[in-house]
Predict the structure of Aminopyrimidine aminohydrolase.
Amino acid sequence: MWAATARTRDAIDALPFVRGLGDGSLDRDRFAYYMTQDALYLRGFARALASAAAKAPNGEEIAFFAKAAHDAIVVEGALHEDQVGRVADEAEPSPTCNAYTSYVLSVAHTQGYPELVAAVLPCFWVYADVGERLMAKAGELADHAYGEWIATYADEEFAQATEQAKAIADRQAAAADPGTVARMREAFHRATTYEWMFWDAAWRREAWAH
Ligand SMILES: Cc1ncc(CO)c(N)n1
């Protein structure tokens, strides 16, 4: 699945937002816009993870997704609050933020556990991958403008959660019929594309036309 999305992954590395995050040159306004939108995204994403917990077939996977939902709000929320302060409940999601969260929530509500697992996997995988790459290039994080962000996603615990999410997706794909596997690929690809769009939207500080 990852191989089919390699082009999108390369395109994510090439984004001016991601490059600027990596070398610290990104301006604070764009970063603040991104963090606010990301806090809104994480609320929707956490609901989708809680849905995955509700659909999971065994205790281990229920616990995994329930903890992931918790961490998306509590652990990542602490990073956001630290960086941009508390994001108001009534802050407005951008078109892309709204599209991405609506998409994962629609998968949660209209499709099965395998498709939902595939739809949330890029959120783990893309961030762990970007975090790790930026960490390798960044050097001393204490002196880095976005060191805290990089440290959060290059973290060993986040890497472990990503491995667990991958293993769950692999097990589901191995047991699924061809139609389900095709929908899993579609969900994985679409969510990876939304990851690209999310950073691109932050670079453009995307707004609603009206
Ligand atoms: C848009 C987006 N995708 C994934 C993550 C990682 O949880 C995040 N914080 N934001």
Summary: The radius of gyration is 16 Å.
